[in-house]
Amino acid sequence: xxxxxxxxSGLIATQLTIGCGARMRIETPRxxxxxxxxxxxxxxxLVHSDPDVAYWSDAWSPEQTxxxxxxxxxxxxxxxxxKWIAHRRSDGVLVGRGGLSLAMVDGKRQLELGWALLRxxxxxxxxxxxxxxxxxxxxGVLGHNEVVSFTEVHNHASRAVMERLGMTFVKxxxxxxxxxxxxxxxxxxxxxxxxxxxxxxxxxxxxxxx
Length: 210
Description:
alpha+beta
């Protein structure tokens, strides 16, 4: 795919060298996805202070957010994958965060895709746009063969995004999380596990790092 074709697809990847590692900035048709590092702690705190995000992921203190941002930067350097902070290309407004991580899922280390959006950014297709960028990066840049995603079974909005991305429901797994109709966090909460294999993905190839 040449540069004109890559720009027509609306997805451009730019490698940012940070210390001895590299993070990957992605531009989609409507978003700029910057790899999260310590410099994004303020934006990350705003995301996790949002009531919709805090419901599913807990609110983070400034200290927790700073530690999480530093850990995300470490993951980028160690694994070449990590989370992005998302802003609108048109005006720089914060949208949310999302991306990939290598995590223990269903008893094995897998490449996992996730997202979290501010309430003001929901129902506009941004989660799907972040998810497509993550899949394109996983398959087109990293060359991985499989990506998974999971959420509580009653998180119908996130499950709908997974299905729009072409991911297939695999099974119910049990993790620490929310149970519909019950207060608080519970061990053994039911989560819906989804998967997409590279051969089943229909996505434009991401631009090469430049």
